[in-house]
Amino acid sequence: MAVVRRGDEMLASLGSDPSDGREFYRLLGGGVDFGETGEQALRREFREELGAELDDVRSLGVVENIFTWNAAPGHEVVLMFSARLRDAGLYDRDDLVVLDSGDPVGWVPLADVRSGRILLFPEGPHLEA
Question: How far is residue 26's CA from residue 120's CA, in Å, rounded to a whole number?
Fold first, then answer.
């Protein structure tokens, strides 16, 4: 997953838990395919999800995320990166969507995340990157 910043905002997709309707944002990225490095997977996922290329990809470390989704426990190990979108025009857009699902993608104010007004996953120190 990648932390992509626009000032004091982060790029994330909007979702909701089917069991209770709780809305949240999730950083963009996805699974690593066999034979890929984490960075290669991140670049592929951004091409698939947004049609976007990344620059200045930098590792931020690993986050272990234990969560509840659809009333069931979940556990994932997330490789976290910071990155910059190559297409500067994407920073001006507020109408992005995940290409294969149509899920809205937005710029989430970090002040709202810090205050608890907006849920952003995975949680962790990478949010200060």
Answer: 6
Residues 83 and 15: their CA atoms lie apart, in Å, by 22
Element (H, E) at 5: strand 5-6
pTM above 0.85, yes or no: yes
What pairs with residue 66 in β-bridges?
75
pLDDT per residue as tens, the chain (129 positions) = 999 999 999 999 999 999 999 999 999 999 999 999 999 999 999 999 999 999 999 999 999 988 888 999 989 899 999 999 999 999 999 999 999 889 999 999 999 999 999 999 888 776 665
Domain boundaries, the chain: 2-128
Which CATH superfamily, name and number, covers 2-128? Nucleoside Triphosphate Pyrophosphohydrolase (3.90.79.10)
Phi and psi torsions of 7, nearest 5°:
65, -125
